[in-house]
Amino acid sequence: MTRKPPAWExxxxxxxxxxxxxxxxxxxxxxxxxxxxxxxGVSRETIRRDLKALAERGRLAIVHGGATRCADEPxxxxxxxxxxxxxxxxxxxxxGVVEDGMVVLLDSGATTLAVxxxxxxxxxxFTRPVPKGLTICTNSLPVGLVLCRxxxxxxxxxxxxxxxxxxxxxxxEALAALARFRADLAFVGAGGIAPSGEITDFAPFPTExxxxxxxxxxxxxxxxxxxxxxxxxxxxxTPIPAGTGLIVDAExxxxxxxxxxxxxxxxxxxx
Length: 271
Prior knowledge:
By secondary structure, this protein is an alpha/beta fold. Helix content is 39%, strand content 20%. The chain is built from ten helices and 15 strands. A hairpin with a 5-residue loop joins strand 10 and strand 11 (199-201). It starts with 6 loop residues before the first helix and ends with a strand.
């Protein structure tokens, strides 16, 4: 007689499928019912139920024969124009943490670029002198270009194939290059901050690089402006070391702040 799996086991298997479906979406942008059914050895109807459940949570969009991501991350030039004052405020707070002689990991993105602009003296509201003897490690071409022109600042670009939309390198080569460095500080971006306090992102390779940057540094900070509050993107940024700072430009909703604190994140609101 065939054993019928208990309800808890079915839920665990469904959750594992959901995570794998979202991971594939983050990597490829779409999934097909047929391919997912073959991968997991389940019926197409089971996969359709999985996709429907994820669509009801706003995690994907159902199309004929499968699903796609709800939306791709906008290109860097567009993100720079979205809430620039908030990003600049975050950049000033982050730059204020940097001290002479530090090794700093700087992720790609519009908010981390604001950190670089503050350090470089391009933000008129940030008047602190550039710290001396800095070493900057970044996968971002714009961040590297801003900081490599400063006297006494050494810039290492974490290499690999450059993603045009983000103007940054991701992938195995960037991960391998990062492994050579020890760092005092890391500043990484995020795709969204869920109401549950989860920090999320759009695609696996950028997410993995951000996780490893946080792990490689003595102190780590996630920098994310208010437009990320409540945004649900497919990939979890996990594990995040306890005590990691989250620098934002506005007070999160109370339930979100409580959830972030419960996850070990220190919320810092930029003035």
